[in-house]
Amino acid sequence: MKFGIEGNPDYGQLNVALEPNERFVGEGGSMAWMTTGMNVKARMLGGVVKAVVRRMVAKESPFVGEYSHPRGDTVAFSPSTPGAVMRRTLSGDSFILTGGAFMACTPGVKLKTRFGGLKALFSGEGAFVIECNGEGELFYNAYGAIVEKQVEGGFTVDTGHVVAWEPSLNYSLRGMGNLKSTLLSGEGLALNFSGTGKVYLQTRTMSGMAEWLAPFSVG
Question: How many helices (H) and strands (E) does the chain have?
């Protein structure tokens, strides 16, 4: 199986060249194109209960497509929002994604939806995150470009810009200064990461785009 990512950072697309009868899993609705003869099987990743929970609380489709080809050929995937596509190789370790960031993976990767606590509930970005673990290749997407930050001690970021992070990091929810600053600064709440590890940020947010478009949608 060979992978190619093109179009980053603005319009990322993942191309997957499959060997005969190799299997690959893509988020429901993310397939952009495929060659003739590709077999597509719809299934619920992790079983019915986990898939439904992932849809309800983590903004992910309950269905994924499992792709294979008897002779081997190519299938391509594109995220629903314009932005970068990223790859992460898992070797028994874990990786945390925010809701909506999962795009595709090899069959050895497992997804588990978990509650992020009240700090996530009040962040405005969803109370649940996706813990990815196992063996294989994981692909995820952002809105805009991806910025990788190495955290050594502490790091504060607006909640809407967080895409993923390594589980070695702890995080807590905080305001931007005192209550007045938090309410009136326009920045709202932020996540404060601590420890050692990497966090991955997106340069744009859907909420920011929605607010910008709102005045043009009247009437």
Answer: 4, 15
DSSP H/E element including 110: strand 109-115
Residue 130 is which amino acid?
Answer: I
Nearest-angstrom CA–CA distance, 87 and 104: 9
Structural contact between residues 122 and 189, judged by C-beta atoms closer than 8 angstroms: yes
Q: Which residues lie below 8 Å from residue 74, measured CB to CB, with a gap of 6+? A: 15, 16, 17, 18, 34, 35
Q: Residues 128, 117: contact at Cβ < 8 Å?
A: no
Least confident span in 39-43, 90-94, 120-124, 144-148:
120-124
pTM, rounded to two decimals: 0.83
Residues 6+ positions from 24 with CB-CB distance below 8 Å:
1, 16, 18, 66, 67, 68, 75, 104, 105, 106, 107
89 phi and psi angles, rounded to 5 deg: -90, 125
Cα dist from 212 to 2, 36, 209, whole Å: 39, 41, 5
pLDDT tens per residue across span 15-36: 999 999 999 999 988 999 999 9
Q: What three-state secondary structure class fits 181?
A: helix
Q: Please give the Cα distance from 116 to 98 (Å, whole number).
A: 10
Q: What is the pLDDT of residues 104-134, one digit of tens each?
A: 999 999 988 876 555 554 444 555 788 999 9
In the block, residue with structure tokens 């596509």: 85
H or E element: which one contains 167? Answer: none
